[in-house]
Specification:
Four copies of one chain form a homotetramer. Chain A is an alpha+beta fold. In chain A, 22% of the residues lie in helices and 40% in strands. The first copy, chain A, has three helices and five strands, in the order E-H-H-E-E-E-E-H. Chain A has helices at residues 31-46, 51-58, 137-144; strands spanning 10-15, 60-71, 80-90, 94-105, 110-126.
Chain lengths: 145, 145, 145, 145
């Protein structure tokens, strides 16, 4: 079912450019991980979390620990995509986010076809040592609100 | 001098994500070519030219023939950039576009620091043979308007 | 356990360059999908299957349908990686490949630390319609040999 | 004229993979900057300069200040390329490198067609401040030998 505002935490729209495609004439599958991350970054920003500031202020960065993605239909140059962000689990040092990429179609650019979806596990680590650490309290609060 | 609407044909804003950076902690220089192209694509779209439709309808695609870029200051994660598009020369089979990437700063997100700039020469070719060809008349009209 | 020739079908060595890293100072996780694909491509080539020739001759291309990857330790600029290819399942229209990326260390450049591993499901489709199709018999023979 | 060992400082061979191509069916032009950099990195390594070690030991990194590239013929999936490195000018804080990408053809994989060429200006900077600095003496010696 296409996403509605009621069912996902955040929606990010993006356009497919030449850089995203491969010689198959479609979006190179690895690039959905980039699209998913752009959406997560904007979701964090919408909650007041800037990752560069987070690192500068607390020494914490988020890293991706596991990705599981299904690639269902090809996206093409000039397609408009909607990428969703839905937290499945928010722990003290890690989180799991479910994400989908939809092709927007028609005059109202509604999400019509599911192109790819997956679950992304993210951990909070120290930027210098890459050792796991608890998320800064202020971030955990914003994510749990 | 920062760009004003009077002096450039098109402005495109974009955000710097993890995917754009390298281990120097800044945007990987080759990615400015991607940023420039996103801006050119949106400029064409603003003129009513969709590159996928152009190819499907006329068999023509634009390819990049030459790039000359200066990288002046580093951009960082979460920076908001403004990328300008200024046609320098529009011929029947090729065009030259001058482009700049600025960092937007302050509460009004105005372009404040020039990060990179360059000239991009683009040619129109047949999508199958890659042989140079005239731009479709409808495209040339829109570009010259 | 580090890979040995007895246990994997193919080993591909590659170097980490600036283009592969991100502002965390390590390899951007999405790039392991690229590394895995380079290794699969070289594995196919070692079996006598060139993907460009396959497409030109039969109209068939391989596409990635699903990826499941664990990112375990960060790789850094200049690291030498060994990427393994181990077919888990070879069907008539799809295959599943298990892959690992190891950091090579020491004077003998042996694989020492597991950096990332995952399972990649690949399908054979028609290059024009993206509809699933059986692999050309000559390819299936080479993969099953 | 195709390169010979007598006329260039270093030759690097690489293969074109799916990740390098775009929907035009050919190598995405921005990726020649990556190919050029891989060749420069291996050239430096051949002289005994590891960039990660350079940074760890001296705090110096090389950054690209200017690129000027002509894209002459398209490269395709599975093509084998030879990328040349020819220093034009080696200063105390910067260098200019001329580079070419050739398609290797025939049973001997000799460079046959020039695909892209350009000049790359590189500067030595402090990794933390990005301010220009002299190259460490040991590096300058190796480059000038």
């Amino acid at each position: 079912m296409p996403p509605t505002e009621a069912r996902v935490a955040y929606n990010h729209r993006l356009r497919v450019y030449w850089e995203d495609t491969d010689a198959g004439g479609v979006v190179f599958y690895a690039n959905y991980l980039k699209f998913f991350e752009r959406a997560r970054t904007e979701w964090l920003r919408s909650l007041g979390v800037s990752q560069q500031a987070l690192r500068d202020d607390t020494g914490a960065i988020f890293i991706v620990g596991e990705t599981q993605v299904h690639y269902r239909r090809p996206a093409r140059l000039d397609d408009l995509l909607l990428v969703t962000v839905q937290p499945l689990d928010i722990g003290r040092a890690s989180l799991v986010i479910r994400q989908q990429a939809w092709r927007c179609t028609g005059p109202t650019a509604d999400p019509g076809e599911l192109l790819a979806d997956g679950d992304i596990r993210i951990g909070c680590v120290d930027a210098l040592t890459f050792r796991p650490r608890r998320m800064p309290a202020v971030v955990l609060e914003k994510l749990s609100a």
